[in-house]
Amino acid sequence: MIVAFSVTPLGVGDDVGEYVADAVRVVRESGLPNRTDAMFTSVEGEWDEVMDVVKRAVAVVEERAPRVSLVLKADIRPGVTDGLTSKVETVERHLSA
What family does the entry list (predicted)? Predict the structure, then answer.
């Protein structure tokens, strides 16, 4: 399973990078395959472990912000591993053809 999510603190002003970094740190320390871009952090693993990471990422932001917004999208595909890499490689292969 791959989950792409974003955690946004609300009520803390316009500069939220420090809060987002706290959430991304939780993901990176989880040991699960992950990737962060300008809009989302994607994490790959089994349902319970991925959702636990998302929950902890939200919780770390919640500790410092009065309100938190979570956007989450999941690709639930049993038996597939290394989707973070293989999906991008497939697209790149088609682009180079």
Answer: Belongs to the UPF0045 family.
